[in-house]
Amino acid sequence: MTETLLTGISELVTPAPGPQRGAAMCELTVIKNAALLVRDGMIAWVGSEQEASSAAKRDDLGGVAVVPGLIDPHSHAVWAGDRLTDFEARVAGVPYETILAGGGGIRSSIRATAAATVEQLVALARPRLGALQQSGATTMEVKSGYGLDSDAELRMLRAIRVLSREFELSPTLLIHVPPLEGRDDYVRAVCQTLIPETAADKLATAVDVFCEAEAFTVEETRRIFVAAQAHGLRLKLHADQFHAIGGTELACQMGALSVDHLEASGPAQIAALAASGTVATVLSGVTLHLGLPAAPGRALIDAGAVVAVGTDLNPGSSPLYSVQMALALAVRLNGLTPAEALSAATVNAAAALGLADRGSLSAGMRADFLALHGPDWRELPYALGANPVRDVFTGGVKL
């Protein structure tokens, strides 16, 4: 047994364990002049330093604020190629349809990713995940989805498995873009071949689908979800990014872990999420990068939904390499308060991944936490362009 008592904490700030919804997202525990006891990688005790018992080892953090490790519940960190030409064209006013017709857009990422080896994908993704980790992410979801065909999707998932030796990752199989021809055959192959192979090799814990007017229909999504559940995989969904076509309601009905994006969500979708256990994940980086309307974070919280925030790190719509920045943008763009944003990026983000053992600095939870540069935790949602995170701890060990 190893024990470390961390002292020199100006304030320890944490939400309660488990997903927080509505007004509870504002209810943070704040302990001034705190101490934190870590035993074998888990939190054994938190409280005032004056009340701390002696421990075999002490680590003085120097009078800074401590918060739970942040969790990124939505990223596409594994890809090859780049979209820099697309970016230049888009800001010059070229419509996306024109970019796509010229060989750019998401299908350029699909071509480049499908041509890459596992080793190449690992090498490309490693620094991206490192940047997320340095910004405060102690757990990160990573999706496939740029492979299209089964072999390429499986290579992406195997790259994520390799990277899991270095980072705490939650792997997701993403059914992202339908083929230009033969989409019914493609959905059948996903259900009968790709999902069973993924489950048999334990390459993912969840299946995500992009349910949109330009992607998969509600009925196609239902078929994929049924196959995923039959093979013991959890459900996640991209929905309401451009149009609300019924995907959010389907996900809530089928017990999905989360529905992500939600920029086009209206009263019906907000009500469905508020009445369910499905997490509403907002992705503020997309709003910043593409200029889309922001997801209705304020309305979701006021309705009583469980709201999380993620980076959506990807080459096309959200080149956001900082989970701290995603948290800060959710305050500016989605209407969250600083306290709500902390809950959204910790316990609620954990719930969006089906993880109940992290996100809160409470006894019995994983000892994943951040020591900030300064004494006030509010620097975390306040700072733009400078990293307020000094040290990242996972399992009680400083990275």
Entry keywords:
alpha/beta, Urease, subunit C, domain 1, TIM Barrel, 8-stranded parallel beta sheet, 23% strand
Summarize the biggest pleated sheet: 8 strands, parallel
User: What is the strand arrangement across the widest sheet?
Assistant: 5-6-7-8-9-10-11-12
By secondary-structure content and strand pairing, the structural class works out as alpha/beta
Gyration radius (Cα, Å) is 21 Å
Q: What is the top-level CATH class of the largest domain?
A: Alpha Beta
| CATH second-level architecture of the largest domain | Alpha-Beta Barrel
What's the rounded overall pLDDT mean?
96
Give helix and strand order, one letter per element, not per position.
EEEEEHHHHEHEHEHEHEHEHHEHHHEHEE
CATH topology of the largest domain: TIM Barrel
Helix content: 25-40%
CATH superfamily (homologous) name of the largest domain:
Metal-dependent hydrolases
Distance between the termini: 20 Å
Please outline what is shown here.
Helix content is 36%, strand content 23%. It is α/β, with parallel strands linked by helices.
Care to describe what's here?
The chain has 399 residues and is α/β, with parallel strands linked by helices. The protein folds into 2 domains: 3-69 and 357-398, Urease, subunit C, domain 1 (Roll); 71-352, Metal-dependent hydrolases (TIM Barrel), CATH 3.20.20. 36% of the residues lie in helices and 23% in strands. It contains 15 helices and 15 strands. It has helices at residues 84-91, 96-101, 106-114, 118-134, 150-163, 183-200, 218-230, 247-253, 267-274, 284-290, 297-303, 323-333, 338-344, 347-352, 379-382; strands spanning 3-14, 29-39, 42-48, 58-68, 70-72, 137-143, 169-175, 206-211, 234-239, 258-261, 279-282, 307-309, 369-372, 389-394, 397-398. The strands form 2 sheets. The protein has an 8-stranded parallel sheet with strand order 5-6-7-8-9-10-11-12. Strands 3-2-1-4-13-14-15 form a 7-stranded mixed sheet, with no helix packed on it. Helix 4 packs across helix 5, helix 5 runs parallel beside helix 6 (183-200) and helix 9 crosses helix 11 (297-303). The two termini are 20 Å apart. The model has no long low-confidence stretch (mean pLDDT 96).
